[in-house]
Design a protein that fits this description.
mainly alpha; single chain; about 0% strand; about 350 residues
Length: about 350
């Protein structure tokens, strides 16, 4: 039996398309690393635009022109920015300076605790291996102390670029919101005419899913931070603002975020009080906060669940977090949801028409 030349050509075409797709993906990844600050600025603007878009749409439904809504929003945001720069930034700066000043003390205290454990170890089988582990750990503590300065410098560099993003983002957000319909119309015109309706429908589903998730997650993170910071302050835990903001940011991560969120508070509380009671109190406080978050806040702000497989969720968070850092963790679930929506339509045969 002879193979059809047409079939061989079609097979080569498929392999060529696969290779081309892989090369394009590699080029996009390389470009992403090279332009990480630009992409970070764009993603920040994109997220802000998603958060503000429902307000603009509601106002337009009431007959208010989009340009007037945007002007009003920017006046309100300007007032909030002045308040933030006047009150919140100095508070956060003082808290961060205090944390950096105390960091070498915490590191040295960890080393002293390790050495104390070493002296208390009994002379029995296996104790030499444990002592070797403690010695290795103590040496790494010294290296961590030496690297503290480098960490501060790196953080300062990131702050500079983040300030640049904060200055540029409002401009990008304005144009994203003002030209939203024109952008959507232009992108729609690029789609194949026989697939335009189905692709537009999928885009609307993905847009609704991503927008709902981002708005809900920001609200949840803010609520967690607002509840945790004053609670830790009342308990006289060092650096309560830092711990509260960290808890709010950690709540972005599914499943393990709840565990990670409480670690700084436990760390600072142990070094100040060194009692099991204070650790139990902190665990109870965070338990109440995350009970409220899981059973009251999330059901209200997440009207539609993404219903993603837990294993897929963890893999997506790990993979995109490794590639894109914070933005990868934040966007892992929306991207997974978009893939699930598109795959569902593909399985249903919607692309065969």
């Amino acid at each position: 039996m002879h193979h059809s030349p047409l079939g061989q050509h079609h097979s080569r075409s498929n392999y060529g398309g696969l290779i081309a797709a892989i090369l394009v993906l590699c080029l996009l990844t390389a470009a992403g690393y090279a332009l990480q600050h630009t992409i970070s600025c764009f993603l920040l603007s994109w997220v802000i635009a998603y958060l503000l878009d429902p307000i603009v749409l509601k106002a337009e439904e009431r007959g208010v022109r989009r340009i007037y809504v945007l002007i009003f929003l920017y006046i309100v945001l300007g007032i909030m920015t002045v308040f933030f720069l006047t009150f919140m930034v100095p508070m956060i700066t003082i808290n961060w300076d205090s944390f950096i000043r105390d960091l070498p003390l915490y590191i040295q205290k960890i080393k002293l605790i390790a050495l104390d454990w070493k002296t208390r170890l009994p002379s029995q089988h296996g104790s030499e291996e444990i002592q070797w582990l403690i010695d290795t750990f103590s040496g790494n503590v010294d290296k961590a102390a030496e690297q503290a300065g480098a960490m501060v410098y790196t953080f300062g560099t990131r702050i500079f670029f983040n300030i640049f993003n904060i200055v540029l983002s409002p401009i990008l957000v304005f144009f994203m919101l003002y030209y939203k319909r024109l952008i959507m119309k232009t992108v729609s015109s690029w789609l194949p005419e026989h697939r335009r309706d189905i692709l537009t429908g999928i885009g609307n589903e993905v847009n609704s899913s991503i927008g709902g998730y981002l708005r809900g997650q920001v609200i949840v993170s803010i609520i967690v931070a607002v509840l945790a910071s004053p609670a830790l302050y009342v308990m006289d835990i060092p650096h309560p603002l830092f711990c509260g903001i960290f808890a709010g940011a950690a709540s972005i991560m599914p499943f393990i975020g709840v565990i990670i969120a409480v670690l700084p508070a436990l760390f600072f509380a142990w070094f100040k009080y060194q009692t099991v009671g204070i650790l139990v109190k902190i665990g109870f406080v965070f338990g109440v906060i995350y009970f409220l978050e899981g059973y009251i806040v999330k059901p209200l702000v997440f009207k539609k669940s993404m219903n993603l497989n837990p294993l897929v969720t963890i893999i997506m968070v790990m993979a995109l977090g490794e590639l894109l850092g914070f933005w990868g963790i934040l966007l892992a679930l929306p991207i997974a949801s978009a893939m699930k929506i598109a795959w569902g339509h593909f399985i249903n045969g919607d692309f065969r028409h």
